[in-house]
Amino acid sequence: MLLExxxxxxSYGKTTVIRDLDLxxxxxxxxxxxxxxxxxxxxxxxxVAGHLACNxxxxxxxxxxxxxxxxEQRCRAGIGRTxxxxxxxxxxxxxxxxxxxxxxxxxxxxxxxxxLAVSSLQRCGLYSVGDTPxxxxxxxxxxxxxxxxxxxxxxxxxxxxEVAGGLTDREMAELVALVLALHSEGVTIIWIEHLVHAxxxxxxxxxxxxxGTVLADGIPSHVVSDPKVRETYLGAELKFEEEVRPEAAxxxx
Length: 253
Hints:
The protein folds into 2 domains: 3-78 and 155-252, P-loop containing nucleotide triphosphate hydrolases (Rossmann fold, 3-Layer(aba) Sandwich), CATH 3.40.50; 88-154, no CATH class. It is built from 10 helices and 10 strands. The protein has helices at 41-49, 71-77, 94-105, 110-123, 139-151, 169-184, 196-199, 220-223, 227-232, 246-252; strands at 3-12, 15-25, 30-34, 56-61, 64-65, 79-81, 157-161, 188-192, 205-210, 213-218. The longest helix is centred in the C-terminal third of the chain and has 16 residues, at 169-184. The chain starts with a strand and ends with a helix.
């Protein structure tokens, strides 16, 4: 098992955000995570990546306990993450942003870091704007830069936090295609997304969080049809396109 979360708990004062949560992800899986606002989705990523400390529970990566490791240690161990709101180093170029990730995230020497940064830019379609200041990028390009920076840390496990948010349908399709390509190359993916219709066609599993715990976990089409899941979402947020991208679904399944 690549990732194992056991009895995970996180509270802020008297407010419990993650409640006795258990979750296991196999190497090579593509897991989608959905849930209403306040369900604890982003907090969960913070716990897994090491940006937040849990109050109780255990986090294991490839069988190794990383519960008390710092974020930079977990990054070196193979956990890469994007953030909901892209925040590149505005004064640096696109290439320099990715180079920082390869140098300090992956811990590579200059020549290796440079090669990995170039490769990450190419995979994310940003090579042609490598010398462009990050501050001048479009939203889609900033989302791609988030991915490129995460890839430059050489992740075994890639945590994607609402990378499709704010994009047009065409831009979202481009981003989904890129994520599918990364998954096909062997990267294990856990993707939090508010846009359920972006996940259902491509994820192998869909996990629903509510009040900091797992409400449902299974085949995406089955999960979104579950009455208790629809009740949690009040029906409205689970409307997704029936004409899902057949080519995307074929790639994964």
